[in-house]
Give the backbone structure.
Amino acid sequence: MIFRRSTTAWSIEVVENENNDGSLYFEVFRTAPRENGHCEQFTLIGKETERDIYIQIRVFPNDEVTFESWVPVCARISQEQKRITVTFLHPLEPT
C-alpha cells in the first residue's frame, strides 16, 4: 500500500506480504511540529489499543529522513525517487 500527502513529494510504501496484511494497524500521515519548524510524519499504530506505535517516519523540508521502529522491519530510502519502502520482517502480533 502506498501513502502520499499533497504537502510533500515523498511517498511511503508499506509492503503487504505473509508478515503483514495491513489488518493490525492504521496509518496517520500528517504535518507535525518539531523543534526547528515542522515535518511530515508517518506513523503506523496498532488497531487494538491505538497506543502502540509500530513505526514512525519523519521527512523534513530539507529532505532529511528519520526513522524509528519498535518492530523488526527493513526500510529502504530512495532520495532520488523520494520514496520510503517498509517491509515487515516478522509477522505482527495483535497488540
The mean pLDDT is 87. Residues 2-88 form one domain.
